[in-house]
Design a protein that fits this description.
2 domains, Rossmann fold, 10 strands, 24% strand, two-stranded antiparallel ribbon, single chain, alpha/beta
């Protein structure tokens, strides 16, 4: 499939900026956090004094009459799965980038880090339905495909239902994975599905927010359009009463979201569009490494 020149240019620019970050800062943090996630059986060898007796292979020892132990190697490879919210609310931003663009940049950063670590990486795009799925694979070509899809794919729906994407991943991810879910999480009823997938996979909720969502500016008469329903309403933003009511409703929604994330009991990474977007991920990996 040929891509428009502006998409190819965006992918190339993102690759250049992301690769520099990966080489200079990020890859080491990623590798330190995700190395040695498990152990795989390598071979049997004869027991020597000092070996852990818990590693003795009793059935083989009984058959041969000599004590043998099971030898394990550290499992270095770990699948990275990126689940990205592509609903209408991600096309919002009061600063240089929209929330969806921030998610794309962070997903690219993780993808290149996985490729450098020789880990398979996959992608799920979701709204209130599964929009697009790329099974995990290794290599730079896979990363380019993921970047292309993040830039080029046009979702069918603008609404959000996080639970749908999580339930789909429960079915397709057979091996334990590192799962990053990118969304503003302005949804309800996702806590149980998030908690269930968090029990099977190393899961982090990357919560992307914009400061303008919390405090409504005084701009006089304006038309507001709901990005998910398309409904438009005209309001007087110069009215203190209107601004207070808006901020009250947003605060209530944010509180409900935070309660659901807390009940899900997964790692949370907060990213704000007017702040450094990379450092929250770096701090997350540093916490993982110290465990």
């Amino acid at each position: 499939m040929s891509l428009p020149p502006e998409i190819l240019k965006s992918v190339k620019l993102l690759e250049i900026s992301t690769r520099r970050l990966v080489n200079n800062l990020f890859a080491g943090e990623y590798h330190s956090a995700f190395k040695g996630q498990g152990m795989t059986f390598s071979e049997f060898r004869e027991y020597v004094p000092g070996d852990d007796v818990r590693a003795i292979a009793w059935s083989l020892t009984a058959r041969t009459g000599k004590p043998y132990i099971k030898k394990y190697d550290e499992e270095r490879e770990m699948t990275l799965m990126l689940a990205v919210d592509v609903s209408g609310s991600e096309d919002f931003g009061s600063k240089e980038y929209f929330k969806g663009q921030i998610m794309t940049h962070l997903a690219a950063l993780l993808s290149f880090s996985a490729a450098k670590n020789k880990d398979p990486v996959g992608l799920l795009l979701f709204s209130d339905q599964v929009e697009h799925y790329v099974p995990p694979r290794k290599g730079r070509g896979q990363v380019h495909r993921i970047l292309r899809d993040l830039f080029y794919f046009k979702p069918k729906s603008k609404r959000t239902k996080i639970e749908v994407g999580l339930e789909y991943l429960q079915g397709v991810l057979k091996k334990r994975a590192n799962l990053f879910i990118f969304s503003d999480f302005m949804d309800q009823g996702f806590d149980q599905a998030l908690r269930m997938i968090g029990k099977k996979h190393e899961t982090a909720a990357v919560v992307v927010a914009d400061p303008a969502e919390l405090k409504f500016p005084d701009m006089g008469l304006i038309d507001l359009e709901d990005p998910e329903t398309g409904e438009t309403v005209t309001i007087d933003s110069s009215s203190p009463l209107v601004r207070r009511e808006y901020e009250r409703l947003v605060a209530e929604q944010k509180q409900l979201r935070d309660q659901e994330l807390k009940r899900a009991q997964v790692e949370r990474i907060d990213v704000v569009t007017d702040q450094d977007i990379v450092q929250p991920l770096v701090r997350f990996f540093q916490r993982r490494h110290r465990r």
